[in-house]
What does this fold into?
Amino acid sequence: MVLVDNHAGKDGAEDGNLVDFRGNPVDKSRTGGWLAAGLILGTELSERVCVMGISMNLVTYLVGDLHLPSSNSANIVTNFMGTLNLLGLLGGFLADAKLGRYLTVAIFASIAAVGVTLLTLATSIPGMKPPECNPRKGGHCIEASGQQLALLYTALYILALGGGGIKSNVSGFGSDQFDSSDPKENKSMIYFFNRFYFCISLGSLFAVTVLVYLQDNVGRAWGYGISAATMVLGVAVLIGGTTLYRFKKPQGSPLTIIWRVLLLAWRKRKLTYPSDPGFLNEYHNAKVPHTHMLRCLDKAAILDDSAAANEDSKSPWIVSTVTEVEEVKMVLKLIPIWSTCILFWTVYSQMNTFTIEQATFMNRKVGNFAVPAGSLSVFLFISILLFTSINERVIVRIARKITHNTQGITSLQRVGIGLLLSIVGMVASALVEKRRREHAIHHKFNISAFWLVPQFFIVGAGEAFAYVGQLEFFIREAPEGMKSMSTGLFLSTLSMGYFVSSLLVSLVQKATKGRWLKSNLNKGKLDLFYWLLAVLGVINFLIFIAFSMKHQYKVQKQNLSSIEDSAEELGNWKDLTLDNKEKKLEADEKVEA
It folds into this structure.
């Protein structure tokens, strides 16, 4: 997955938020820039090599070496990836509230290095695996015991903790190395995000080709050992550049504001609403207009008599402001769309679980070379890169001419296209699996693994639309004061998608008594599971359409600071900003009157 925080570097050095490693105001000639950003990109490259090299081929190890059932193996992978993305919220919270991005990335990268090192040990110690066998030839296989799995689980979830902390902060820390108020550095920041995406893609391609080949043909210890060494090197490079970085001071997490508003609204639930909303705390100074939506939350901004007598009556833990309440309302307004984005990532998770398992039952030879099953996911990443480029260079330009909209297609339209493609991807997966099983059973013939390429390409194309659409939607629709919530909401859809996959697999196993999802796919009915996902996708898409039609996009207003930035570029900063400030003062006086 790609996670880019486009708003991470918007606070320039001029507001005093950026300091050097000694805590002094930054010296642009000695800190930041491409050297510092390049070292940070190295850390992200290392994380990508580790996580993708493990997740895209882990299911083959669980089924083939540890002899676990396919359904259990798929759940282990999806739970691991779901936890990793969920813990990204923890990493983001710690960075915003206390530690800052540098310390958070350094600490969690070190944790990730420990996790992948333990995973290397778990897969290389002979006593951590059951005796070898071949179930396809009728051999009786003994599943790995709880003691043998203990070190594996410990390693995976330590890695999930470390990877989540890196994922939620590394792009923001990289963008902090550029001052957005400096035209030259602002341009470099744009290139940084392009190169950040390139590093993610490069790391993923290296992982699913070179590392997966080493895991399958040389040994898991070698494959995971290289991942561990890469992560340790990434940590060393990050720490080695400490004196070169610009550090952004922690300014508090928006999660704290959300929790505080909900808590105060609950505590004051028995209070009566004021006769006029103007009596709410900071009503006339609100940065966001008051609305009547979710009116129950307004009680958090009521200053009751007992609190008013307290000298700390305006403490944020006693009464919220109207601005805080309205921002929480705006976040809650996104929940319906958020809920319909989850199933896409449930579909996506099949690409590194059951689809990889399908490949092990197919002919993967190209001449005399056997392509590792996990390496077939390279077509997924090729599709993502290809359709991301086509989307921006072709589809958006054509759509702009048709719709006369500068966006070309809206963020929700992108998400809708992604959801449709995920449905088509599951239909293709079901048809291919039925053909594969029929040939294996009736003709004793394994069809080519390249029959899986269409489903990789279709789901990859879906991600190119859904990923960009979801991230753009949450960024644009989130409150101005809670922009970091956009990445949090996005990460949570990924996390929930993987967890829903685990839940569905467990429910299907119980409902079908294990007849659909068997370790030997030739004896199961995996195609019916894919059809189930396709049907759920259709239902989810219809619900998404209903929510989308009711959703009202937030009005994108250009604030005073952005006006000043534009005026400065035109050379008319003084005249324009003074004029706008005077207009703002006049407007404020009218509101007060």
Observations:
- The radius of gyration is 26 Å.
- The longest helix spans residues 183-217.
